[in-house]
# Entry
Amino acid sequence: MIEASIETTNDPSSPAMKHVMEDATNPNRQEALRAAFTDLEQCGEKPFEHNIRTARPGEEITGQVLGHDNRVASIVTDDRIVAVDRADLPKRLPDDHDITFTARSDFSAWGASSRPPWRGNVRSSLIPRRAPRANGRRSKIRAFVEHVLAQQKSRMGLFVRTIGIARARTKIGMANLAYNLTRFVWHQGRTASP
# Structure
């Protein structure tokens, strides 16, 4: 979600946030994401440290299969884990090779039937070695950013309710300036000698 926020900030026409909202509100996409979380947990990974999303119709995906059942498959790509409709994949999946396919399903054909409580065919060796380091770096950045935002919201009462992006930018910029000045004064007080 943080990546989608940054992408949307840099390019307001980006559909990234729309896709995040679809994943959050569509029950079928939620089910697919839960299946990917289960696959990661079975591999000994922490799901919330990974960038996970559902596939978009027409999207070309290349990666290795992390786990699958009769409805959902989790694909590990270079930069994220993608939950895809199992119907989009060939019947026989390769064991140790990358698979490339174009997603066709938008998860709307799924009914409300229950999925099995277990997931099969999970392999822990598919998560790239560089992924935990990259996730650690992202977590560090998130910790810094979330602390600043929490301080602005709680201490400064930041609540952006404006009309127009220019006014919102100004209000957020002023809150950032006030926060930075508060931090500056605090640091000056610490380094001052009595």
Observations:
- Residues 112-119 have pLDDT under 50 and may be disordered.
- The beta strands are 52-54, 60-68, 72-76, 81-85, 99-102.
- The CA atoms of residues 18 and 57 lie 14 Å apart.
